[in-house]
Write a structure and sequence with these properties.
Layout lengths: L5 H4 L3 H44 L8 H12 L6 H4 L13 E8 L5 E5 L5 E2 L4 H12 L6 E3 L20 E3 H10 L3 H9 L5 H14 L18 E2 L1 H12 L2 H8 L2 E6 L2 E6 L12 E9 L3 E10 L2 E10 L4 H14 L1 H8 L9 E2 L1
Parallel strand pairs: 2-12
Antiparallel strand pairs: 1-2, 1-11, 3-6, 4-5, 7-8, 9-10, 10-11
Length: 357
């Protein structure tokens, strides 16, 4: 007696089975990199907590020593290089020994370049993107008191970054704008773009159109938050953006607020500025924005007054959590010194100042 296989009983079963297998394989290969990235991120966070507890603990027996050593190895493991590092821009020497791959300082009123390092580089700009997002929103003239709601579409599916604005959060456009500039809230920035006339695609088109109108020839945007490494610009372009944004008192105010309380549902939540220099009384900052993703490194743009001038400063791809702020301090000290003042008045007066390439 011959035994029939299920596939002989149902001729289409084999094809269906193969289709199911192929679909499963495709799904696994497309989701695997994302899941792997999430696992790495969660592992590093968990390891950091173990190290923190071990440091704070008075008793070495609280956490096994082997677990602590393993956690430290995970925390200290090298992360992916930024675009600037990949291009070798960190090898560029400059007169002030800055930690940023790119630095650009100009007089806001005269556009005179006072310091320049790798100005030709076009790099990811992370949340510096939000400055253009805010500029487009303000110039569109949409009602600031209109209520916008955070939706699933605003959740970050690229970097899986966290947000304090849960799906369903309802805030005014003004509050969304404030949080995007002050605290670099990604969901707030994305919601602003999504509620633009014509939707998100129209908003991104408006961002690129505005960049072109400002002469930002090296700039390109693909979304309003800065989470994508395809949002890129050069330092001179960003200086143009800062100058344009500075013309709006609302953007100056929102970007330089040290902290603010926002009513989120039935709770009052406290948000702080991402730029520590805002809370430094020795700085007179008129407008600022910070940014960070791995591909961009630490970034900072500022309008500030010192050395008797209104200045615009751009720092891209800085290494270390606080190095961009340290670079700003180095530039300020140099410009306020006798050498810096002389150079600002006569750019060729000192051989210390040069354009680094």
């Amino acid at each position: 007696m011959s035994v029939r296989t299920p596939f002989r009983q149902q001729p289409w079963s084999m094809l269906r089975w193969l289709a199911a297998v192929l679909a499963l394989v495709f799904s696994a290969t497309s989701v695997a990199p994302v899941m792997a990235a999430e696992r790495v991120g969660k592992k590093r966070v968990k390891a950091a907590k173990i190290v923190k507890i071990a440091k704070a603990s008075k008793s070495a027996k609280v956490i096994p020593r082997r677990s602590v050593v393993r956690a430290r190895a995970i925390v200290d493991a090298p992360v992916r290089a930024s675009f600037g590092q990949g291009f070798g821009l960190h090898l560029t020497e400059d007169a002030l020994d800055l930690k940023s791959s790119v630095a650009f300082v100009i007089d806001q009123e005269t556009s005179e370049v006072l310091f320049s390092k790798n100005p030709q580089a076009v790099l990811p700009i992370a949340s510096l993107t939000k400055l253009m997002t805010a500029l487009v929103v303000v110039e569109a003239g949409q009602p600031l008191d209109e209520i916008l709601e955070v939706s699933e579409a605003d959740v970050d599916t690229e970097k899986f970054s966290r947000s304090r604005l849960a799906v369903g959060t309802r805030l005014t456009r003004e509050d969304m704008l404030h949080l995007a500039l002050m605290s670099s809230e990604n969901r707030a920035a994305h919601a602003l773009g999504r509620h633009f006339p014509g939707g998100l695609n129209a908003f991104v088109d408006a961002m690129n159109f505005k960049a072109a109108s400002l002469g930002m020839a090296d700039t390109h945007y693909v979304e309003p938050t800065g989470l994508s490494s395809r949002n890129q610009a050069s330092a001179p372009d960003l200086a143009r953006l800062v100058k344009a944004a500075y013309a709006y008192p609302l953007l100056r105010d929102f970007s330089t607020t040290p902290e603010a309380e926002v009513e989120v549902g039935r709770r009052t939540m406290q948000f702080r500025n991402t730029n520590g220099l805002i809370r430094n009384p020795t700085w007179d900052i008129g407008l600022q924005k910070t940014g960070y993703i791995v591909e961009a490194g630490r970034c900072l743009v500022m309008q500030a007054k010192f050395a008797g001038r209104q200045l615009i400063m751009v720092f891209l791809d800085s290494t270390g959590k606080y190095s961009r702020l340290g670079d700003a301090e180095r530039v300020r000290r140099w410009l306020e010194s006798d050498t810096g003042i002389a150079t600002a008045a006569h750019p060729t007066a000192s051989p210390r100042v040069r354009t680094a390439h």
